[in-house]
Amino acid sequence: MNRVVVSGIVAAAAIGIASCSVTPILDTGKAEGEIEKGILQQAGVAVAVDCPEGIIAKAGEVFECVGTAEDGEKITIKVTQEDDEGNVAWEVVAPK
Predict the structure, then answer these.
(1) Which long-range contacts (CB under 8 A, 24 or more apart) does 29-37 make?
(2) CA gyration radius, the chain
(3) pTM more than 0.85
């Protein structure tokens, strides 16, 4: 994977909340798809993204996802929650 091209890619997405329980949980499965689509559109690189499950929706909280290219190279993706409604911003920050 071309690290120069992939590093610094940023985007925002509305991923929603997977649960309507007392504690809202982010739909990280949807986040994975949005990030994969964004990296492909911006850098022309296909990656499989894996985000942790059970992330509580809370404005300002940050978590990391890992992207894996077809050649096995891994990248770190920083995801920042913009609000508690499932709106996030993400950025490819570094190779893993």
Answers:
(1) 31/65, 31/79, 31/88, 31/90, 32/65, 34/90, 35/11, 35/65, 35/67, 35/77, 35/79, 35/90, 36/67
(2) 13
(3) no
pLDDT tens sequence across 57-67:
999 999 999 99
**Could you give the CA distance from residue 41 to residue 27 in angstroms, rounded to a whole number?**
22
List the structure tokens of 35: 């990030």
What separation in angstroms does the CA of 80 have from each of 13, 44, 61, 88? 10, 23, 6, 6
CA atoms within a 13 Å half-sphere pointing along the CA-CB vector of 78? 14
Q: How many residues does the chain have?
A: 96
pLDDT tens profile 4-52:
445 567 676 667 666 555 789 999 999 999 999 999 999 899 999 999 9
CA atoms within 13 A on the CB side of 91: 7
